[in-house]
Amino acid sequence: MSAQIIDGVLIAQKIKEELKCQIESLKKKTEKMPKVASIIVGENPATKVYIKNQCKIFDELKIPYEIVELKNDVSESELVKKIEGLNVDGDISGIMLNLPLPPQINSRKIQNKILPAKDIEGVTVENLGKLVYSEINPIVAPCTALSVIECLKETKVDLKGRETVIVGHSEIVGKPVLLMLLSSLTNSVTPTVCHIATNNLSGHTKKADILIVAVGKAGLINGEMVKDDSIIIDVGINRIKIFDDNGTAIIDDKTGKPKTKLVGDVDYDSVSQKASFITPVPGGVGSVTTILLIKNLLNLFKLHIGEEVEGYKFYESRS
Ligand code: NAD
Predict the structure, then answer these.
(1) 3-state secondary structure of 113
(2) For the chain, how far is it from start to end, CA to CA, in angstroms?
(3) 238-241 and 260-263 as β-strands: parallel, antiparallel, unpaired?
(4) Of 118, 128, 130, 312, which has the fewest Cβ atoms less than 10 A away?
(5) What are phi and psi of 97, to 5 degrees?
(6) Residues of the chain falling short of pLDDT 50
(7) What ligand 1 atom has the least distance to the C-alpha of 285?
(8) What are the DSSP calls for 190-228, one per residue?
């Protein structure tokens, strides 16, 4: 039997509609809309694509923004000065720092220069720290981790106690997902986290009712490594060459370069035969992340203007 697809585009659309209503009601209460400053350092093709997607959604929701472009050889102190300026700029409600940064910059140190009240990516120590406390419903959190939760909610499956394996333990995906999935005092999943040093990866993945993979290695998980009827959330984004039946890379006539496509970390064809639900790549987790950036922004802005903000409840279904 083939798995049901968890459609990230559809999830993003539903969240966007909710946010449009919030924006309308905010417009009635305040003259000002929250403005975003998105910082990009140097020329990175992947970041450019991400920025283009951000701008598209800002334009659609009529959210003002400014792209702050800095040269690849910018010094750490210049970047800090720029961020400090944005921190005190009354026109700016949200700051994001697009990664990767060039090697002379310590990303973690610089991210923490962003004022937590303007940290729309939820990556400062203060905002990440709030994920530890079950009694706090954080109002910002890392968007990819939030996107994983939204994809799980879409299945409407009761998560209580379920064997859940997270492959990948990065600060931006694996670790925040773990904390979100442990946030309920009574209904949390039973998690295992695997990483580069894990022995016998398939021994763990085969036991998973819910398998979340965020590594960055195409084909890491195949059909033999997953349990029947499991839920598969594939966070990985990998660009691979396309080969013909003889194993030769297909060349693009226009560019003269090998043709490529995006895939996840999960071998979709074999895994979707066994799973009950699966996120595709593209069109899964990655399709939900940018709209959640806007949700973080609106939450911070509402708090700033004295509105009540409910905060994220990772175990409560979407209305
Ligand atoms: P990262 O490089 O920071 O972390 C990779 C993790 O994978 C580490 O925990 C590492 O220990 C683990 N790992 C590496 N090799 C492994 C192996 N053989 N077996 C088990 N674990 C292994 O990566 P990241 O930033 O968390 O990103 C992971 C993937 O998710 C990448 O493909 C990235 O492009 C993608 N990503 C997608 C989105 C999105 O919006 N969909 C956002 C961020 C990252």
Answers:
(1) coil
(2) 29
(3) antiparallel
(4) 130
(5) -115, 105
(6) none
(7) 41
(8) EEEEE-TT-SSHHHHHTT-SEEEE-S--TT-B-GGGS-T
Sign of the CA dihedral with 106 first, then 107, 112, and 114 last: positive
- Evaluate: CB of 172 within 6 angstroms of ligand 1: yes
Q: How far apart are CA 120 and CA 295, in angstroms?
A: 9
pLDDT of 222: 98
Name the average pLDDT for the chain. Answer: 96
Ligand 1 neighbourhood includes 233 CB (under 6 angstroms): no
- Residue 319 has a pLDDT of 66
Gap from CA of 14 to ligand 1 centroid (Å):
27
**How many whole angstroms separate alpha carbon 34 and alpha carbon 90?**
10
What's the pLDDT score for residue 272?
A: 98
Contact assessment for residue 95 and residue 117, using Cβ atoms and an 8 Å cutoff: no
Sheet with 94-97: strands ordered across: 65-70, 36-41, 94-97
Identify the bridge partners of residue 249 per DSSP, sorted by sequence position: 243
Q: How far is the CA of 196 from the centre of ligand 1 (A)?
A: 10
Cβ 177 under 6 angstroms from ligand 1: no
What pLDDT does 193 receive? 98
Hunting for tokens 């990516």 — which residue is that? 121
Cut 0.85: pTM above it: yes
Say yes or no: CB of residue 22 within 6 Å of ligand 1.
no
- C-alpha distance from residue 122 to each of 80, 142, 300 (Å): 18, 5, 10
> What is each CA distance from 19 to 12, 50, 58, 293, in whole angstroms?
10, 20, 12, 11
Would you say the CB of residue 289 lies under 6 angstroms from ligand 1? yes
Q: What is the pLDDT of residues 142-195, one digit of tens each?
A: 999 999 999 999 999 999 999 999 999 999 999 999 999 999 999 999 999 999
Give phi and psi for 197, each to the nearest 5.
-95, 5
